[in-house]
Structure formats: C-alpha cells, structure tokens
Amino acid sequence: MAAWSPPAAAPLLRGIRGLPFLHCVHRMFASQTEGELKVTQILKEKFPRATAIKVTDISGGCGAMYEIKIESEEFKEKRIVQQHQMVNQALKEEIKAMHGLRIFTSVPKH
User: Fold this and answer.
1) pLDDT tens per residue across all 110 residues of the chain
2) pTM, full prediction
3) Of residues 59, 84, 62, 61, the one with CA closest to residue 74
C-alpha cells in the first residue's frame, strides 16, 4: 500500500465543484452565509412590509450569484418588471459584485 501524501489525498478532500471539503461541510451546517445575511438585511430595510424574504447563494457559497424570493405589499399593483426593478434598486451596490441574480417576487394573498 502506498504511503499517504497530501497530493494523493487531494481528490478525497475535494467537495462539490472542486471546493475544499471543509468549506462544503461548513456550508451544510451554516444556516446562512455572510452574503445571504447581508442581502436579507438590506431587503428587510428596503421592504419593511415584506411578509417573506428568502436569499440563497446559488454560487456554492462564494457570493457571486443569488436567488431572492420576496413577498411584499409594496409590489401590489405593480408589473413583474417593476417589482424586479425595485429589488434591483434596493441592491444596486451589492449587485456590482455579483455575476448573476434570480429574483422571484409576489404579493401576499389575503
């Protein structure tokens, strides 16, 4: 049996998409990344009447791409494109550092 060496073990220590295994484990047990928390906080401030906000880092944890689901009364009587423009405006500084953003907006059903 060959001796253990770091280069030989590298494939075993790699996780999803080539990220280090420990990063993947951390992501599995962390409730939200720092980026998700930051974006969520901004959206809570900009949309105080929101009844639901869910921000998910869909880039594997590096913060390059997010999926946002937000339900708010502020979207009432606005077209989808206007709703998305409101979210884009709220996150205009953060968007500069992103590669992509998926936005899903809705109005609460009473």
Assistant:
1) 445 444 554 454 444 455 444 444 444 545 788 999 999 999 999 999 999 999 999 998 888 999 999 999 999 999 999 999 999 999 999 999 999 999 999 999 97
2) 0.70
3) 84
The pairs formed by 40-44 with CB atoms below 8 angstroms and a separation of 24 or more are: 42/90, 42/91, 42/94, 43/68, 43/70, 43/87, 43/90, 43/91
| Phi, psi torsion values for 96, nearest 5 degrees | -60, -30
Return the sign of the alpha-carbon dihedral for residues 7, 64, 104, 48. positive
Residue at token pair 């109005």: 107
Identity (one letter) of the amino acid at 17? R
Amino acid identity at 105: T
